[in-house]
Amino acid sequence: MTALTLSTSGAATLRADALVVGIAKGTGSKSGNLVVAPGAEAVDKAFDGKLATVLETLGASGAEGEVTKLPAPSGLKAPVVIAVGLGPAPSKGDAYDAEALRRAAGSAARALKGSKKAGFALPTESAEDAGAIAEGALLGAYAFTAYQGGENKLAPKGARSDVKLPLGEVALLGTKPRDKAFKAAAERAAAVTEEINRARDLINTPPNDLYPESFAAVATAVGKEHGVKVQVLDEKALVKGGFGGLLGVGQGSTHGPRLVKLSYTHPKAEKTLALVGKGITYDSGGISLKPAGHNETMKCDMSGAAAVFAAVVSASRLGLRVNVTGWLALAENMPSGNATRPGDVLRMYSGKTVEVLNTDAEGRLVLADALTRASEEKPDAIVDVATLTGAMVLALGNRTFGVMANDDAFRTSIHEIAEEVGEASWPMPLPADLRKGMDSPTADIANMGERMGGGLVAGLFLQEFVGEGIAWAHLDIAGPAFHEGAPYGYTPKGGTGSAVRTLVRLAERTADGDLG
């Protein structure tokens, strides 16, 4: 994990491998000109006030995420200056957007892979700015190197030697190390990003090493470390409890399913929040086998469970005054002589029967059992998170998750929270007319309905298993959970940790008495 410090050093005197400064596109009377952002005054002075001119000569435009490296002049201790674009400069009197700072810091941290220390002299007018910069830098510095060589001491003999480790230390300049608000912002950023990066590690871990039992073991170990109580229901307990959805999905694999309960409690908590995560550690589609080209990244189908796990541990590390319970519905969906067939009927934990028309619509089956179980404890609200449908990716693309809910105000609140923390989301409806498509002549409900609006149909299915009178929201993160393109901002290639920041901020708001 990259270290984070609030530095008392100035940009000119900091000894580091590089200094990161912000540049922006001029607006108004300065439109078209490059603007050096606040925080970089000492660096600009070292360039005789011509930093913007030098950068323009090198082709820099100030576009968001653009990174320009240049050698530092003699007035600086650091040998390299990295100028990162912030996009359009804000109007006079306004501050830079937190997400712009977050993404800029992430871009710079990625460019500094292999470096030991860098000073970040980005605009820091408030503790919130410092927190955003810290988040972006720590998330941008992430790299999954567990199975590669380089300086990784765990790498086997003969492994690759060209792998660079992430930036070792982020020093935030222009901050107030003794100020309580700045210290709290830095500590929060460090805790939450460490758990997001842990979630990313889980998502990126190959499915031969991450399966329900091993995921449960990780949860147990981390929970013990951070004061989270962990209960694991194995196959025998699931059979005894009648968890037909989890058992039906997992019965085709040699790795049996698990239901993991994570419990964080605060002695002064007045509200309880339940989080439910889809944890399909590998999804082949089962008997309804996925075609070639659609299963290579299906190790990521447990991203919802990883997000819930990270959020519960984060709540504990932050000491939030709210009770947070996480439910990880873990199974591996495989085809075999024991696998559930299309046409089979499963009896769910709720007692309802489900006709399985497509075994590749398995996430809703494991979530249904977990939602029913979570509802039994009468929480004030339930939020489930899942890489549930390709239909949601078709609707919203690869960077935006859909939000559905049984309460309009709660859905709006989740959407606003997601936008606040920098996670793109969009509110989606639950049209009642689509429910009829899941009517079954054999069972209480089928696990498939109309093809058009498939993401909404999945949400309607889940709603059937939520306890009466409980506010519930469903986050379909199928698009942003796993990034297959080139890294950008603080988003790496592979697992992203999507929805963790939204869940943590929801827990914080709930602790403050604002559940939405």
Q: How would you describe what is shown here?
A:
The protein is an alpha/beta fold and 516 residues long. It is built from 14 helices and 20 strands. It has helices at 41-46, 51-57, 98-111, 127-140, 180-204, 212-225, 235-241, 244-250, 303-318, 363-376, 390-396, 408-421, 454-463, 500-511, and strands spanning 3-6, 18-25, 34-36, 67-71, 80-88, 117-121, 169-172, 229-233, 258-264, 272-283, 323-333, 345-347, 353-355, 381-386, 401-405, 425-427, 445-446, 471-476, 482-483, 494-495. An eight-stranded mixed beta sheet has the order 8-9-11-10-14-18-15-16, with helices on both faces. Strands 1, 2, 3, 4, 5, 6 and 7 form a seven-stranded mixed beta sheet that branches. Helix 4 (127-140) runs parallel beside helix 5. The relative contact order is 0.11.
Quick structural gist:
This protein is α/β, with parallel strands linked by helices. Helices cover 32% and strands 20% of the residues. Helix 3 (98-111) runs parallel beside helix 4, helix 5 packs antiparallel against helix 9 and helix 10 runs parallel beside helix 13 (454-463).
